[in-house]
Amino acid sequence: MDFLQTYGFLIVTMLQQGLLGLSLYFPLMAGQLSLASPGFYALGGYIAAIMLTSPAFAGWRDALGGWIFPLTWVLAALASALLGVIVGVPALRLRGIYLALATIAFVQILQVVSLNLDITGGAVGLFGIPQAFGFEDRWQYIWIFLPLTVLVLLFARQLERSRVGRALRAIREDELAADAVGISPTRYKVLAFVIGAALAGIVGAMSAPFLNTWNARQGTFDASIAFLAYTLIGGSRSLWGPLLGGALLSSLPELLRGLADWRLVINGLVLVVASLYLPQGIVGALSKLRRPVPPKRPPVAPPPALPLGDAP
Amino acid sequence: MTDLLQNLINGLAIGSVYAIFALGYTLVFSILGIINFAHGAVFTLGAYFTYTLVVGQFENNGLIKGFNLFPAGSPFHGTPWAFALAALIGATLSGLVAVLIERLAFRPMRARGADPLLALVSSLGVALVIVNLIQILVGAESYNFPPDIYGDLKPALILHVGGKLIVVRTVQVIIFAVSMLLLLILGYVIGRTRTGKALRAVAENPGTASLLGISVSRFIVITFFLSGFLGGLAGTLVSTAFSVAGPYFGVTYGLKGLAVIVLGGLGSIPGAVVGGLVIGLAEAFVPSQYSAYREAVAFALLFVMLLLRPQGLLGQRLIQKV
Known about the structure:
The complex is a heterodimer of chains A (about 300) and B (about 325). With about 300 residues, chain A is mostly helical.
């Protein structure tokens, strides 16, 4: 297991960040760019950290043993989903850059609050979080992050193929048209937002023991941007994009470790170059490679006659 | 009553800097429809340029030790004039950096008509590069402007009102005066001159403007220069008022600037001024027992404004694109 000893931490980090990239993918299925994920990620982590360290939960921990960990995931998902509904219902009336700004504001407010509460440990945060299931090595977190990744991918694939997925796609392509055929945009947008929130919350709850400490630096504007970069650079139109983007970009600083001081500069340059030359993301570029000649758009079919005979 | 007055003074001073900083954002947004996240980094750079020129010492492990424009013994050394000149040069250099940013990170994207959200990532990449280059070149420590940077005039005014002291610092007067002067000049340039007319035409509709013989890319360069100039000058003013400028100094202001322009109305120039003053005052009036939450005020206002009136205080009604 030498390989895992050396690279296990990196692999787990890649999965973890890939999952966070995916948490942006769900709202994006409905065409909503939300940067709120770090807020839910931080919330999930705080819930886990508090339940695993606070004396108030000592009784629970004794009674539940290892089951306390799955419980923190469930509670983190529920709390994030609930907060997601509270924030999402008003905020999702906004679109594009306005929604992005509102979600940035949400993350900033949560950060200031968590810096000032006693229960979150203030600026210092919470530390000494016990390792999940008594793991002795960081790479063992692969046993919880990998199944979660597989589950999320399967879930997302099923979702895309379902009625709900088609409704989300319809909203992404044309919200008014979707509304006109009886799809409630608000309901589906909030649903997609809440799924992303719950996912970010679970990842937070899994990450608190993985990182051993939890503080307000976990859910910051920088994280919002990092997750956005994962999605856009990986490719926002495919499930694999955010996962791949997260895995690649989060491994970049590690791979560049030899360049010490310069690695963040290079990270920045990668963002610039990738957004300039890979507008469809890596996955988009790869699928273009597969069919080098872009298919000509089929001639636009004349619109079918409207059954009600109204002039369009 | 005295608290009210003191808060008002503090709020107007910081609010006016928010305003000129945010103007840089809003100018670029009104022309290109993108948010230039590197604006906060340009703000930081402005402070560093001025600091280098006027103090010229980075006593640490960075690669650059500094370049003093007025070394000891030279005629203007240590005078407010030296500082004023350094601040102007610093702001001009910031403007040039902003032009360079447009050239490298935005222009190639515009040529292809890429998604504006990609411009967001690209400008963030630029910010990351700038902030970390600063760290490499001069180190991660914060630097303080010497307290007598504006000369030994401080404080400008001490009022006795009802047995309490109200202090108006020279820095505050200068910040407020410089900001208002800049706003007046900018208002004149944009409202009254041919250049301003052309800028407004480009902001309104680049396609039509270019048909009318306006060189759109030239005005985009002008816009970025103005934006960087204002951002860099704001960086210098803020860092002298609060005596601190580290590499990450611009991040918070970058985000607050967003709150300012949304509050005033994205793309609206008077909106940026009103938004800046409103947020500056709102922060100044946070009661001291809740001061820990002061940093959340701008974002709470941003969030509420987006929900109630997304077009902002002075913005035009959003046209829903179908």
